[in-house]
Prior knowledge:
Layout: H1 37-68, H2 71-92, H3 95-103, H4 108-143, H5 150-175, H6 179-202, H7 207-235, H8 243-267, H9 269-278, H10 280-293, H11 295-315, H12 320-353, H13 361-380, H14 383-386, H15 392-416, H16 418-443, H17 450-477, H18 484-508, H19 514-521
Helix pairs in contact: 1-6, 1-11, 1-19, 2-4, 2-5, 2-8, 2-9, 2-10, 3-4, 3-5, 3-11, 4-5, 4-7, 4-8, 5-7, 6-7, 8-15, 9-10, 9-15, 10-13, 11-12, 12-13, 12-17, 12-18, 13-16, 15-16, 17-18
Amino acid sequence: xxxxxxxxxxxxxxxxxxxxxxxxxxxxxxxxxxxxxxxxxxxxxxxxxxxxxxxxxxxxxxxxxxxxxxxxxxxxxxxxxxxxxxxxxxxxxxxxxxxxxxxxxxxxxxxxxxxxxxxxxxxxxxxxxxxxxxxxxxxxxxxxxxxxxxxxxxxxxxxxxxxxxxxxxxxxxxxxxxxxxxxxxxxxxxxxxxxxxxxxxxxxxxxxxxxxxxxxxxxxxxxxxxxxxxxxxxxxxxxxxxxxxxxxxxxxxxxxxxxxxxxxxxxxxxxxxxxxxxxxxxxxxxxxxxxxxxxxxxxxxxxxxxxxxxxxxxxxxxxxxxxxxxxxxxxxxxxxxxxxxxxxxxxxxxxxxxxxxxxxxxxxxxxxxxxxxxxxxxxxxxxxxxxxxxxxxxxxxxxxxxxxxxxxxxxxxxxxxxxxxxxxxxxxxxxxxxxxxxxxxxxxxxxxxxxxxxxxxxxxxxxxxxxxxxxxxxxxxxxxxxxxxxxxxxxxxxxxxxxxxxxxxxxxxxxxxxxxxxxxxxxxx
Length: 525
């Protein structure tokens, strides 16, 4: 599972490290937020174009990478990614969320102080992290659950250290509706990284090929964003720390860092313990399933990239609570549907495209898709926990869930391996969703229409069961007449057909508003 929250800007992943971002032209004025469905749809579709190009390349590269890396090598790579996830949390310091919360509502001198302080603070944290790594790299290698070289450690450190600097300008682009530049920057990075991965793997560099490609492309990204960041610094008068702004950022971002470290205990400790107690080969299977389960997060990004920067501004409107409830529930229902569609399509698809040594991932991905649907709901139905000047409520929720996760992992992973890790994730994310919802509703009550997600969940469950029956029939009757690959192709196609029929039923039942289709096709209502 990814350690980043749904509204974070970036993530580091083996194969291709790509950034969740958006982007349009260079106007630096603070945008007016349009709450209508038409505005949300147009922005989400614009984001979607860039995301398909950025993240789609990463997923398309996965079969290629797994054919060049044995499960042991891929497991070692995943161990480094766990370390990078921790570093990204600390270096980010919750500044992306702080920008969403305070810069979007501020103006004039106060906005200048906040942006300048963010830029200066992230440079300070990055420099401090680099110094600590120089002093303690040997100690860090000694505690890792697998034997890794200094070269590998420093190559994963480069994109991790660059992450803080990259995240701030990309977030400012999103908040200023600079979708075109945003997408161009990220597409350049991911294309360069993909080409480097191919060239270096073909040259026989193995796991180090992926690490070198990630490091080089991250440095390139920093250089590309440097001009924009300097322009923002001049626009905001100076990159300097304002103590009042620093206090505001620290009070809001500090609890987010602590809660994210708790979230790592939920979505990072599983991989750490799998590597240490079960072996890097089983970790590789789990990691591959996790990457494909994150397709849900990829498909949700067009909506999330519009929603998270604007939700607090939207809440200030006269009908803000109704609008926030509508969009949060809409995103939750989309996540439920996408999870069901993935359960119907991904297992046979993975069997078709992955080497046999990774085939167990086809079973694991079904359960991880369900985990991600629950996580997505918790990410969206939590606005009250992030309102006000403090984010401590979500910090305590994350750490309570982290304690449950830690207990579960130490109890189950050694004996049950991947099955134990997945069971803990299902329990913890269900608890997280329940607590987020209850506390958020107490702080900022939103009028959710719960009947919509209940109808959605029922229809999705029936569709998944129907697909399982249909797949079993195809597998039982066709192998005697056609090849195994052809059967898997037919099973995958049948899952796509059922998913499409399900989507039409969800529009017909009112779970998804038909206004979206009418606006997209410009049909009269």
